[in-house]
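Possible regression after last week's pipeline update?

I re-ran a chain I had predicted before the update to compare outputs. Posting the input and the new output here so someone can diff against the archived version. Not blocking, just want to make sure nothing changed silently.
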Amino acid sequence: MAAVAVSGQYRRGKTALFLIACGWAGVAPHWIESSRSLLPAITLAFVLGGYGLRTVLLQDQEKGLVQANSKDGNSLEDASFLPNVDVLVAARDEEAVIQRLVERIASLNYPKQKLSIWIIDDGSQDGTPILLEELNQQFPNLHIIRRSRSAGGGKSGALNQALGKVQGEWLLILDADAQLQEDSLLRLITYAKEGDWSAVQLRKAVINASQNQLTRLQAMEMAMDAFIQQGRLASQGVVELRGNGQLLRRSVIDDCGGFNEDTVTDDLDLSFRLLITSCRVGILWDPPVQEEAVETIPALWKQRQRWAEGGLQRFFDYWPFLVSSRLTFDQRTDLMCFFLLQYALPLVSFADLVMTICTRSMPAYWPLCIAAFSISGLAYWRGCRSTSEGPSIPSPNPFRLILAIIYLAHWFVVIPWVTIRMAVFPKNLVWAKTNHHG
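New output (post-update):
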């Protein structure tokens, strides 16, 4: 199918309509007779909760779809058949991690003549440019692209500038704090080629989980997210890219028109464009890509606002295609259920809470909230208990499990705030990067 182009127009209007619709849905049950006020929430709890439960439980039946070959099953004996791979990293002010990243990529168990490293220095103002110059003398396959800090387009703009120079059949997109096992790329390429995937997302593993309680909760959250994505894949639903550790077939990126510079989350936007153009996206549990979790509440708040905004943007931009025959029935069902759970439920619950306080009545959506948090808890438990390579995942003991479920409630603050902000204020697209400490 041809590339899908969107301009990002009318986002404020679409957001306002979404905000009004969710507000009305949250308020309406309070106008119904008390004996019937819980019917909408109970109905949604059975429908959405049932689909979510099926997603969490189904993934075991399709385990072969989401696991790479074992370490012992991969070697460089057939190196002549391995494709050329370009590793792309958009870096801004990454002096704490950039040297480690380049050294790790260069040490990957992959033919050196078929591996190129491209670092796009996006106007760094720290010691990153100096370190890159030193590394360039040490590693012949390292290429550096310089961009002005005001060049625009954020991470997407940086990656697009590299697209005009790279020649590989596959692109591996990494963040500057990424760490890979020596055999990660070889196993990833083998899995992608054998499964005929257009793109593959590695499970994200938190390397600094022991830093504090917040990083530990994020490590559990990443395991839960990957586990749910496995279930979505097994039920013929939608798998989403996560930015760091995504392998992309170069030809499909060209067909999609490159990376969208009119979004704050290039990975989520690209996920939908690949979906609409019938490209198959897979997820790989092992080996993982290792990364840093943010270590403070302000950093988490900043990060989650960007994720929430990008997530909403893509639904508003692509919704005509998402409800069309371009997608299968299973894909449309999957998107509808998870859109309602991820984005609509926090807004509806906020309106429900406001109405509960104003009328001094009982909340109307507690059955749906209990169903959503219960399914998340089950996904936490199963994901954190799964056998995994890389950094150990925190054990889901009862205390941690309860704390992790409470932690998820931050989305019930982030989503309403971001939605209101998007509906009221025009968006100035900037690269709101996460700081890395190494």
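Follow-up from reviewer: compared with the archived run. The CA atoms of residues 44 and 314 lie 24 Å apart. Marking as no regression found.
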